[in-house]
Amino acid sequence: MTIKGVRIDANGKTGAQSVTASLDSGANGYVLLTSSSTVISGLGSGIGTFAIGVRTGNSANPTTTTIFTNKTVAFRTGSLLVTEGFASAWRSATQNSNSGVGVNNGTQIRLTFSGIPTGLTLTVTPNISGTAALSMTPTSAVVTTSAPTAIFTVNGSSLTATEQVEFDVTSPATLGSTVQISTPLSITVVATLYPLGDGVTTSDTTKLNAPREDQGYPTFLQADTSPVTIANVVSANTTLLIPLAEKSGTFDTGIAIANTTADPFGTSGGGATPGTGTVKFDFFGSNVNGTSGAGTACTLTTSSTNVPSPRVGINADGTVPAAERSSCC
Questions:
Q1: What pairing do the DSSP bridges indicate for beta strands 164-170 and 255-258?
Q2: Residues 117, 69 share a domain
Q3: Who contacts 326 (Cβ-Cβ below 8 Å, separation ≥6)?
Q4: CA nearest to 141, candidates 128, 115, 123
């Protein structure tokens, strides 16, 4: 007599799992040769590691998406690397079956994003090229602030090798007026196996702890990984320290600021993203004539009504164009 396909509630259990059998009568010649047997050799997390990274064999450098507060996209794509917890953790619906007919659920990976600005749409694409056994659907998904989850189903997997999937998270190249980005922030993401469920009945006393048919098989408890920062919105400015600015007699310090964002390297080659903007000077003066203590600080921000004199290489609205420079006396 063989019993197979018996479901168990693995919540909170660790290590190997065994079954114990007994006969209530041997009168008909039945003999129980083995009273116990190991049915599960071990239990472990379905997701081993979750971090910024790229799949083995991918020559690209792992990175995060970077967007400036002026809506310029510096780096469009960030890469997440999910590693299987053990060799047979990820299974298709058919691989979860012992009859050759798929059960209700295959393994799914759910990614949940936090901090997506209103109006921004990110595309999530699983990168599994070069992995012969692993296949997933959908081929891509989108996430927004109102729909922050992406769910991917394993349709095939190796049961003898620990596999990896890289998820590439991509921002649009150009952000429209509906994208609400004005202050620096971070977009984070967590991962868990899916679909979620408690697996066994708890309310029906006649079937207490019996497998739940309505949730299908298998189901997982939510076990989100630690959050990983996949995208950053950063200030579109650069801070420079000028240690000395002085006017004394005929000596008068001149300050020149160069906007070199139109360099020839390009954003893909490590160069800057071309852009224009105003310049803000913060002056921290020192008292003269032997008076102790700091002087009065003052600020100058270039604008259409407040530009340095002489105005060299600066637009009439106070912005400094790429490849030009402004000067202030």
A1: unpaired
A2: yes
A3: 256, 257, 259, 279, 302, 308, 311, 312, 313, 314, 320
A4: 123
Identify whether the C-beta of residue 128 lies closer than 8 Å to the C-beta of residue 97: no
Co-location of 72 and 217 in the same domain:
yes
Q: What amino acid occupies position 171?
A: S
What pLDDT, on the 0 to 100 scale, is given for residue 329?
A: 45
For every residue of 178-209, DSSP letters joined together read T----S-EEEEEEEEEESB---B-SS-GGGTT
Same domain flag for 76 and 116: yes
Residue 116, token pair as written in the block: 């997506």
Q: What value, to the nearest 5°, has the Cα angle with vertex 156 and ends 96 and 193?
A: 65
Alpha carbon distance 326, 329 (integer Å):
10
Residue with tokens 């922030």: 185
pTM here is 0.77
Q: Name the stretches of the chain with pLDDT < 50.
A: 326-329
As separate numbers, helices (DSSP H) first and strands (DSSP E) second, the chain gives 0, 20
Give domain status of residue 18, yes or no.
no
**Structural domain for 218, as ranges:** 47-234
> What pLDDT shows up at residue 324?
52
- Pair 78, 134 in one domain: yes
Task: Check whether residue 126 and residue 158 sit in a common domain.
Answer: yes
Same domain for 180 and 286, yes or no, is no
Return the pLDDT at 33.
Answer: 84
Domain total of the chain: 2
Query: Contact at 8 Å (CB) between 135 and 156?
Result: yes
End-to-end, the C-alpha distance of the chain in Å comes to: 96
188 and 272: one domain?
Answer: no
